[in-house]
From TrEMBL:
Keyword Isomerase applies: yes
Sequence similarity: Belongs to the methylmalonyl-CoA mutase family.
One Gene Ontology MF term: metal ion binding
Organism: Mesobacillus campisalis
Protein name, entry field: Methylmalonyl-CoA mutase alpha/beta chain catalytic domain-containing protein
Length: 626
């Protein structure tokens, strides 16, 4: 074939039917619609997306153009790269200084931390720190509860002149109240004093943003993306309206906002969330009559605490990497990647360095800062962005119908709505419809970890406070309970596996139950191959255990399990016997009558099963002690 002919060749355009047919070939007879998935945002994800799934006339043509879903800068990250703003964990001001120095020498580009009252012990030193790092990059400081003191202290370092600092020293009183269940003083006094702080900051730090719209507390309580976006809009509108009522110029007020999002594990949904956030805020700014540039949303993001685990913490590296990747593709300006051991409440120099290097790899090795809007052109992302924006706008209107975000919190409507979503998430984890690697699947039962102390404070809450949560917490509590039993008894909680027949017959269910139990910190003891009932009796007597599970194939269950269970219940009345699998109704009835207490199978609520089993083991051990 001649070169000219090759140049003129064209591939025929594939239709959706062509793609569907091709996909179904690999599904071995299953319909492609079986791949559809329903999300916590009540969005039905289709297996295939095409141009027909989005009205392209509504899409902004280029990044930097309204509605800014494709980013707030025309050149993307090439001209305005995101800031590496990993939040510095510190014990003292000296510790903060030392860690900041090390971080900036290793790739950090923004001074990022949560301000704390202990920083004010040496005001001169704090002023020097802020002044020094303001020359090295922007600030990324969350100052909830101490914003007024922090800004006034930092302003002393500017000698009364306007500071050249950029970035944000911001607080979100609404999010603070959501977490605490109310305000520390009269609500009107809180906002009157805060408005004065914002005015002072506008004079001393004119280029520093001071109003934070922080959705992380709602995310960490279990909210879905629609709720996060609706709450962000409601909070932003509340602040803008408050400033306008106090005589602020609209553009000046809009310029003081920075939105902070927590990025979860649903990769494409999180990208769409950030894109939809910019789209929606631009619409809000337009509704207020702001000029085009004022409608740009500045976004700070952090990797999710909600998705992190205490056990098997190195898996958190992968989770944080996935979340950071989504944040960058979504178009953020500041990013904090959490250390792998964040769930334990402690971090090390190693884990902090790895977290920082995650961002540097995305910049320098994945070259993400060289591409403007990397996710643009994906019909899937564009479609989800649009649907998410529409649902979030509807949720925002529901909040406004309840007289705004504060009223929605005071009535507990918002908390109950978030609690409903979290209950759905928990249920899916308990049933293992959603996997948490190292926690509810592929857990290492031999792993040791100390329980993180939980501080319970007396609260005079005016309304129900939002509690931070992690999906893995219920399982971690089971693991800590198993560890407590081991500490009291000197032996690890374990269940005896009575293996019926030969290895081929029982291995599948033996492996299943071993993994099932490991998620609760429960070990297993395997019997010899049981061909005769006496082998099982010998194992029960020598194992010194009180809980056992029959493992075998359906044939073994029908031939041996019923009679064996009957004899065990007669010989060993204080022993509890379960079965791995879920036979048909008739067989289950016979097995239950024979003495089988539980059936462990793929549709079991793993958490409830493990919780019940550990409770029984705890009671049995107390009985032995007595």
């Amino acid at each position: 074939m001649k070169l000219e002919e090759v140049k003129n060749m064209a591939f025929p355009r594939a239709t959706m039917e062509d793609w569907s047919t091709k996909a179904e070939e690999s599904l071995k007879g299953r319909n492609i619609e079986s791949l559809a998935k329903h999300t916590y945002e009540n969005i039905q994800l289709k297996p295939l997306y095409s141009r027909e799934d989005i009205d392209v006339s509504h899409l902004s043509g280029y990044p930097g153009q309204a509605d800014f879903r494709r980013g707030i800068h025309a050149s993307g990250y090439q001209g305005h790269s995101w800031h590496v703003a990993n939040r510095i964990n510190y014990a003292t001001l000296e510790d903060l200084e030392e860690k900041a120095k090390k971080a900036f020498s290793s790739g950090q580009t923004a001074l990022a931390f949560e301000a704390d009252a202990k920083l004010f012990a040496d005001e001169e030193r704090l002023c020097r720190l802020i002044a020094d790092y303001s020359n090295k990059g922007p600030l990324s400081i969350i100052a909830d509860g101490v914003q007024d003191t922090f800004i006034k202290t930092a302003a002393k370092g500017a000698g009364g002149a306007e500071s050249m600092a950029t970035g944000f020293i911001a607080a979100d009183p609404v999010a603070e109240a959501a977490g605490a269940g109310g305000f520390p003083k009269e609500e009107k006094d809180v906002f009157a004093e805060w408005e004065q702080t914002l005015r002072f900051a506008d004079t001393s730090f004119p280029d520093v943003k001071t109003i934070l719209v922080n959705t992380a507390p709602y995310h960490n309580a279990g909210a879905n993306a629609v709720q996060e976006l609706g709450i962000a809009l409601g909070t932003g509108v509340f602040y803008i309206q408050s400033l306008l009522d106090n005589g602020w110029d609209l553009e000046r007020a809009l310029g003081k906002l920075v939105f902070h999002f927590s990025i979860g594990g649903n990769f494409f949904m999180e990208i769409a969330k950030l894109r939809a956030a910019r789209l929606l805020w631009n619409k809000v700014a337009e509704a207020y009559g702001a000029d085009g540039e004022s409608g740009k949303m500045t976004i700070s993001a952090e990797t999710s605490l909600f998705t992190k685990t205490v056990f098997d913490p190195y898996v958190n590296l992968l989770r944080a990497g996935n979340e950071a990747f989504a944040a960058v593709l979504g178009g953020i300006q500041y990013l904090s990647v959490s250390p792998l051991d964040i769930a334990s409440g402690r971090s090390t120099a190693f884990s902090e360095r790895i977290a920082r290097n995650t961002q540097l790899i995305l910049k320098a090795e994945a070259h993400l800062e060289r591409v403007a809007d990397p996710s643009g052109g994906s019909w899937y992302i564009e479609s989800v962005t649009q649907e998410l924006a529409e649902k979030a706008w509807g949720y925002f209107l529901q909040i406004e119908e309840r007289e705004g975000v504060l009223a929605a919190l005071k009535s507990n409507w918002l908390q109950e709505a978030i609690s409903t979503v979290r209950a759905e998430r928990d249920k899916d984890v308990f049933l293992r419809k959603q996997s948490i690697i190292g926690t509810n699947v592929y857990a290492n039962a031999a792993e040791q970890a100390k329980a993180k102390p939980v501080e319970v404070e007396e609260s005079k809450a005016a309304f129900k406070p939002l509690a931070a949560w992690r999906l893995s917490q219920p399982y971690e509590e089971l693991r800590f309970k198993a560890a407590a039993i081991e500490e009291k008894t000197g032996s690890k909680p374990a269940l005896g596996l009575i293996c019926l027949g030969n290895l081929k017959q029982y291995k599948g269910r033996m492996d299943f139950i071993t993994g099932f139990l490991a998620s609760g910190g429960i070990g297993t003891q395997k019997s010899p191959d049981v061909e005769k009932t006496e082998t099982a009796f010998d194992f029960i007597e020598t194992s010194n255990l009180k809980h056992f599970c029959l493992c075998g194939d359906d044939q073994q269950y029908s031939q041996l399990a019923v009679e064996l269970a009957k004899e065990i219940s007669v010989r060993y009345p204080d022993v509890s016997v379960a079965l791995a699998g879920y036979p048909g109704m008739e067989d289950r009835q016979a097995l239950t009558q024979a003495g089988i207490k539980n059936f462990y199978h793929m549709k079991s609520s793993q958490y409830e099963s493990l919780s019940h089993l550990l409770n029984e083991m705890e009671v049995a051990n107390h009985g032995q002690k007595a």
